[in-house]
Amino acid sequence: MSSKKLVIIKGSPRKSGNSCVLADSLAKGAKDNGAEIEEFFIQKMNINPCNACNACIKKPKKECIIDDDMQQIYPAIRTANSVVISSPIYWFNMSAQTKLFIDRLYGLVEPNKQLMKDKRIGIILTYGDVDQVSSGAINAINSFKDTFKYIGAEIAGIIHGSASAIGEIEKNTDLMTKAYNLGKELSS
Ligand SMILES: Cc1cc2nc3c(=O)[nH]c(=O)nc-3n(C[C@H](O)[C@H](O)[C@H](O)COP(=O)(O)O)c2cc1C
Fold it and tell me: For the whole model, what pTM was predicted?
């Protein structure tokens, strides 16, 4: 039985969208390993942009003072071993919903990056075009790599693939298995 906890951030506006389907496969792998899952469908949450007030980096250190639904996500991340972010590719990068979440991590990691550097990270991306270059997924991948390198958190796996209609990714059994296995790995 695993005592690991995974937080999953779903950055698609489509609850049964392709990136969510892959995230669910990952969650199943983790659950089958006994892990606890806490999931956030951020399309339905009130998450504001970072407003650069810098309250989070002033002394004495406060967490983000914006009073919105990120206040539910911060404590979940604090107690998690892994954080998984799933997003569709929109205009050659991650979705706007996902980017809002990433910007707000500032309140958790600054000024000394301590609060996330022990987490393991999983990334899931889906796109309509044929590969990571033509779709622009490569831009999101590089952005996540830079972000988590800066934070000092290890990216354990990046799962990405092509699909358009809702749920179409399910036919890609190879990718579904890869997501499931990443869930197992993150919960081991
Ligand atoms: C506003 C919008 C922008 C998109 N931009 C891209 C893009 O730049 N590259 C791409 O390959 N697919 C693009 N797509 C297609 C989605 O990435 C694709 O349908 C993906 O599987 C959606 O994931 P989801 O089902 O998890 O929402 C776009 C779709 C929308 C609605």
Answer: 0.97
